[in-house]
């Protein structure tokens, strides 16, 4: 290739990459990287390169990452070149971009490669797989997808620096399974795929999104059990999986989500007991488990420990026993729905201490309440809508 030190018996891990830079230039431009006019032999050409009189012509229209790497490879100073290992890794990624990514394959006419992306190659591959597997051609909105080189210009994709930070594709006609490769978006903060037609299991790999704060998968067609890997999402603050067809139990491992503020699992087919571990989520502000097939003695769950709750909805299940004592400790509570269960006994008097309460629904149970008692309750909470 004629690089510096060539033929001098001084090969090292950097000097050989000079040829890599020349090859990248030639592949991009379709011409030789040097003007060899006037050189009668390879030796004279090498001498001019080594002396700095002749430098490769790096096209200005090369993608920035590719251009910079070619420039580094062809530096006269071997110490400034990448190692041969770095060069191999770079070329492997280039081969991936050229042969495997649908973004590239669909748009060969403008020579796009993943070097143009503001995000990583892996993120581009992941988003492309999501587009393909959820019938992206049928999405309501898909501006920029598989066309624009900047991932931040893809509809619903939000970037933070050079990484995908948010994916907002709510109400966008996504259908089919959620690809397991979604776990490759390791810096993702928000995943909102709500109000679509996604189906199949929620992949266990979702637990690898260790930076996730907001997970919105509600109003889809997901089935199967709740992934236990959700417990690995230590930064999760909002988890909304309501109105799907999820089955099985509520995993006690969810009690490990110490930052969780919102947990909505309503409108599924969940069965069994509510694990007492949920009562340890002292940051929880809203808990909705209504419209499932949950059962057990409600007083044994420990709901009174969730003192930051403003909304609690356990309606339309099979909970039995008495309404838990000490619910009056939930002084921030604005909404309390325990209706349509199998509850018995009296309404605890400390409920009337909940001065912020706006909705109290206890109807559809087997409570011992008279009309006179109901009228008295309304007097205690005049601003509250009460159903008994």
Structural descriptors:
388 residues, alpha/beta, Transferase(Phosphotransferase), domain 1, Leucine-rich repeat, LRR (right-handed beta-alpha superhelix), 2 domains, 11-stranded mixed β-sheet, 9-stranded parallel β-sheet, 7 helices, 19% helix, disordered N terminus
Give the % helix. 10-25%
Distance between the termini: 87 Å
The tally of helices reads: 7
Find the structural class using helix and strand composition: alpha/beta
Radius of gyration (CA) equals 31 Å
Q: Structurally, how many domains make up the residues?
A: 2
Keywords: Leucine-rich repeat, Repeat
GO molecular function: ATP binding; protein kinase activity
Domain Protein kinase: 1-104
Organism: Heterosigma akashiwo
Please give a quick description of this structure:
The protein has seven helices and 20 strands. It is an alpha/beta fold.
Report on the architecture of this protein.
The protein is elongated and about 110 Å long. The longest helix has 16 residues, at about 85-100. Helix 1 (about 20-30) runs antiparallel to helix 3. It starts with 17 loop residues before the first helix and ends with a strand. An eleven-stranded mixed β-sheet has the order 1-2-4-6-8-10-12-14-16-18-20, with helices on one face. Strands 3-5-7-9-11-13-15-17-19 form a nine-stranded parallel β-sheet, with no helix packed on it. It folds into two domains: about 15-105, Transferase(Phosphotransferase) domain 1 (Transferase(Phosphotransferase), domain 1, Orthogonal Bundle); about 125-385, Alpha-Beta Horseshoe (Leucine-rich repeat, LRR (right-handed beta-alpha superhelix)), CATH 3.80.10.10. The protein is of the alpha/beta class. It has helices at about 20-30, 40-50, 65-75, 85-100, 100-105, 120-135, 370-380, and strands at about 155-160, 165-170, 175, 190, 195-200, 215, 220-225, 240, 245-250, 260-265, 270-275, 285-290, 295, 310-315, 320, 335, 340-345, 360, 365, 385.
